Amino acid sequence: MLEMTTALGIRKVEPTASFAAVVDGVSIDALGVDRGDRHWHVLLDNRSLSVHLVGFDAESGVYSVKVNGKPMEIRVRTETDLLLEKMGFGADTRKKAGSLKAPMPGLVVRIPVSVGDTVEKGDALVVLEAMKMENMLKAAEKGVVESIEVAVGTAVEKGQVLVKMR
User: Contact 73/64 with Cβ under 8 angstroms?
Assistant: First the structure.
């Protein structure tokens, strides 16, 4: 079971074996055609939707999409995320202080900070491209960039240190 937050509110989503989902206990069937370049044509509840994936913030689990041209943000949380939050261990408590590590393998496409920069919690540190999506990796807390361990164009592995903070 997943929990999804949209502009319409929070909904529980349970993936099924077919191209369908259960949202708040109601089965929703959808047919989708991948048009490439992060665009899909989706038929949902007899409605035709054009869906474009704009980006994904790996740390918050928020997908930025445009549905029929209207910008939306969708946050997907797994059962593990929900359990950790219930226990008081939200996403912020799971971040490793002092360094930013790659949450997935990918390619570094932008580094909007320099060594010595003072950053606030939530400031962009690295933009990582993975599976044709740009993922903005942000500072977990206020600090100063001590070192940048990668360069633009570098392929990185999951868990690799990208930026060290103090």
Answer: yes
